Amino acid sequence: MDNPGIRSSDDATEHARASTLLSPRFYTTDFAAMDRLDIGSLRTEWDALLAEYEGDNNHDHFQRTAEFNEEVARLAPTWSPELRQEFLAFLVSSLTSEFSGCVLYNEIQKNVTNPDIKKLMRFMARDESRHAGFLNQSLKDFGLGVDLGGLKRTKDYTFFKPKFIFYATYLSEKIGYARYITIFRQFERHPELRFHPIFRWFERWCNDEFRHGESFALIMRANPELLAGANVLWIRFFQLAVYATMYVRDHQRPQLNAAMGFNVTDYDFEVFRITRDISTQVFPQTLDIENPAFRAGLDRLLRAAEGIARAQARGGVVGALGKAGWAVVGAATFVRLYVLPTRRQPLPAQVRMAPAW
Ligand SMILES: [Fe+2]
Ligand SMILES: [Fe+2]
């Protein structure tokens, strides 16, 4: 589906470069508007957060060890070809989203003078560059390293106003945390299933993502107009878009999830639950993921995505018609999901949360 097979470094780079509805994107934004942000109303919490970045507790974490290399050499030959392809696709898409953050935060850092924003973006770009580099090393083990410089030059960029950057990156940082910690906890319970050493790095790694999310939470809470009025409709939209994308993408990797000992749907809903609980720190409305209509809608979206992929593979007039038909089903389902009742809660006085999952 979104995985035509990764057999060379060029395939991996091409895979990272692809712009589909499901693939991670690169973003650019309005730097002048970023520059005008004021986080003054949350100065104490902001300074405490920046001090954490300064302390850099993960500075020595993203290093390969001799055991790491030994484990890769021992475990990789035991993978089925399907698992191997799905795991490689997972590495490439994780790398693409890490590098997307790196590029965006770095561009903002270079283009603003606001000292608070500049400093934050520099720290986050530092972290994401480590994450991307560490993932790329695991691709290089198989001779499949992605050409990051080329990717930066040639991948399409999506322009988002700052507020959309905040909604989207806040969610992707927190969902990134939730995904990594859920996988880490699973392998803590079932070390016999851990088929690659990179998962042992996920706990300290995802604390970086959690902190990145905290930064955007503070920015949004310090500028409360971003969380009120018609913006609440955008916030609902972004939650649904992010959850739906993840649901469809994860269901395209059945072998990977089976190897992790996960039922894909249960894993996704656990990740949604964690993300939803965290996001009450900043979003006045969250999706009611327990509503059976929400689950049913996601499954319908998944069927529509599978229908589109089948029609595309078939090609010709019949394929084109089929694709258009499934696209209508998908869009209508998305709208129905969007108008489901949401959960509303007052924003807590204390913004910061601890990564306690
Ligand atoms: Fe990251
Ligand atoms: Fe991050």
What does this structure look like?
By secondary structure, the chain is mostly helical. Helices cover 67% and strands 3% of the residues. The chain has 14 helices and four strands. A two-stranded parallel sheet has the order 1-2. Strands 3-4 form a two-stranded antiparallel sheet. α8 packs across α12. The radius of gyration is 20 Å and the shape is globular. The protein starts with 8 loop residues before the first helix and ends in a 13-residue tail after the last strand. The model has no long low-confidence stretch (mean pLDDT 95). One fe (ii) ion binds next to α9. Residues 98, 101, 127-128, 131, 208-209 line the site of one fe (ii) ion (FE2).
Compact summary:
The chain has 357 residues and is mainly α. The protein is built from 14 helices and four strands.
Key attributes of the depicted protein:
357 residues, mainly alpha, two-stranded parallel sheet, 14 helices, 67% helix, globular, binds fe (ii) ion
Element layout with pairings:
Layout: H1 9-17, E1 26-28, H2 31-35, H3 43-55, H4 66-75, H5 81-111, H6 115-140, H7 148-154, E2 157-159, H8 162-189, H9 202-222, H10 231-251, H11 254-259, H12 264-279, E3 285-287, H13 292-314, H14 316-338, E4 342-344
Parallel strand pairs: 1-2
Antiparallel strand pairs: 3-4
This protein binds fe (ii) ion (2 copies).
Assembly level: single chain
Q: Low-confidence spans: pLDDT under 50, at least 5 residues? A: none
In round numbers, the mean pLDDT is 95
What ligands can be seen in this structure?
Answer: fe (ii) ion
Question: How many whole angstroms does the radius of gyration measure?
Answer: 20 Å
Strand content: under 5%
* Helix-and-strand structural type: mainly alpha
Strand order of the largest sheet: 1-2
Q: Based on DSSP secondary structure assignment, what is the total number of beta strands?
A: 4
* Count of runs of 4 or more consecutive helical residues: 14
